Each structure stands twice: as C-alpha cells, then as structure tokens.
Amino acid sequence: MKKIVIHGGRPLKGEVTINGAKNSVVALIPAVILADDIVTLDGVPDISDVDSLIDIMIAMGASVTRSEDSLTIDPRGIQNVPMPYGKINSLRASYYFYGSLLGRYGEATVGLPGGCDLGPRPIDLHLKAFEAMGTLLSNVEPSTVANANKQSFTKNQQLILDNKALFMPNGTWVVGEMAKAPRAEGFKWAMTAAPAIEKGGKRYVYSFFEHIWVPKESKNQAAAKEFLSFLYSDKAAEIFAKYNAAQPIQGVTAKLPEELKALYKVVDEVDGVINGNFVATKPVEGVSMKDTLYGQIDSVASGQKTIAEWQKSVEEVSQKLKAAVQ
Question: What's residue 148's pLDDT?
Fold first, then answer.
C-alpha cells in the first residue's frame, strides 16, 4: 500500500497549481449538452472520470479537444444515443446526463451509475425531482414558456387573452402592452385575491411600495420631500392613470381606465391590502432571504422539505436579519 511520510517542523515554500474540483467538472461536462455552441472548460483535472466522460461525449457525436488542463467541447453534433451499458456504468456522475438529455431532447436512456463500491448511494432525489417536474408540466398549457423573457414573454400574455391560462409572469402593465392583441370572445381582465388561509377566513391582496431614497448629504432635501409627497397626491394619481399605472392611495380605482379598473377593483372587494416593505440591513454572513424564501420553494414542491420546515427556515433568517437592521 502506498503511503506519504511527512517530516514536519520545517516551513513550506514554493508554488503549487490547484486543479479544478472533480465534483464540479463531472457535472459541467454533461451540462455542455445543453449548449448551442463551443464550450471551453479550464482547470480540468487529469482523472479517469474525465476520460470516461470524454469518451461518452465523443460517442454521442461531440467534438472534444484536450490541451493540458483545458477541455474544448463542440456539442452541435450530439445525438440522443441510448446509453444503457458501457462507459456510462463506470462512473458515479453518469446521472448528470439524465437532466441534460431530458432538457435537450425530452427523453433519455441512461444506465444506472457505477463508480467506487462505497455502499449504497441512492439517486432517489434526482428521480423525485423529475417526477415533480413531470407532474407540474402535465398541468401546463403545452406552448407555455418556462420563464418570461424578452423574446417570448408576450406568448404567456397571449395565453391569458386566449382563455388558456389563469396566471402569467407579469404585472398590470400587461393591459397596455396587449391592448391591440387578439383575444377570445367575451374576454375580460380580472384579478383575484390570494386564497384565505382558513376556510371562511379573511382574504387579502398583496402589494409593495417602490422606494425612493433621499441621500442624507444631498442638497435641496426639502424640495425632494415635497416631490415625494406630490407623487401620492390626487393630481399625480390622475397623471399616472393616463399611463396605466396606479398609485397606492385611497380612491385610485375610480381614476383608472375601465380595463384597469377590472384589475384593481379587487382591492375594494377584499378584507385588506398587505403592503410589503424594504428594509436595509447590514450583511449577515451565510444568510440570504432570497435563497431561503424563494430558493427553497422547489424543495417544498418536490417533497424534500415540508411547508413547516420552509416556514421555520424563513423565520430563522428573518430573526438574523432583524438583528442587523440599520
């Protein structure tokens, strides 16, 4: 058995080159399947798993060039080749091909992972994730894009106008954006409140304020404060309404165009409006409200985390951030 004998007590000096992490590169190489152009990876370690992954990529039709610790992959010739046996069974990281092939082709035939015999290492989390995603997708209008973007976000909005969807990733400005778009016969805009927490309970709509800050050392602070007050006046509300925008002031619904009234009248029909707010805090190491509040939703949807666990983690992060409020 090989061994390394270290005689200590002497200062170390010199240079050493740190290779890229093995666990990172074995995920990045299969991920290249999703790219539509040439990808270059640097700092690639010289290990057997990388050799196996290169062989698999070449077998699928990719062009691969290796120069020292640099790896260049052209995925444009890749075909969805079934891989039930062979190299795919020689490494643990073969499960990364599941997601890449499913993402590009919608289906995949990939053998079970192999690797070192270190006891049971189940992949149930991967399978549960695919099952959860499949369940969600089975309830989605087939032509819906996953996320709104500048190329196709209007497609989501058109689904609303065609009476094929109830929700869209957009705001109330959609009324103006889609004013001239075709729509289903009898279509009308509407907005509903979030469901009550308990049966027969109160219902609320949720909103938030945009913040405008007046720097402490700025000049003309009095004029700035006067302008901020004007933004929430009846006169300003009338100006905003001409451009399909609503200010959070009492009676604003009456000032809006008819189609926008249909959206905002929900404010007058519920038990109240909950307005979110922004508060500045000092940085707290290892704490991110965004990651905790939104990033864990996937875990809740897939069953890896319960709603109670999610709520508890949000409360814990909230307390840490509360202590750091400036």
Answer: 43
297-302: list long-range contacts, CB under 8 Å, 24+ apart. Answer: 301/132, 301/136, 302/128, 302/129, 302/132
DSSP at 143: T
d(CA 303, CA 140): 20
The strand pairing partners of 272, in sequence order, are: 204
Q: Which residue has the tokens 């009676």?
A: 251
Matching residue, tokens 């099952």: 131
Residues in contact with 309: Cβ distance below 8 Å, sequence separation at least 6, in sequence order: none
> Does pTM surpass 0.70?
no
Angle at 22 between CA 18 and CA 31, to 5 degrees: 120
The 3-state DSSP class for residue 162 equals coil
In this prediction, residue 38 carries a pLDDT of: 92
In this predicted structure, what is the pLDDT of residue 147? 42
Q: Are 25 and 45 in contact (CB under 8 A)?
A: yes
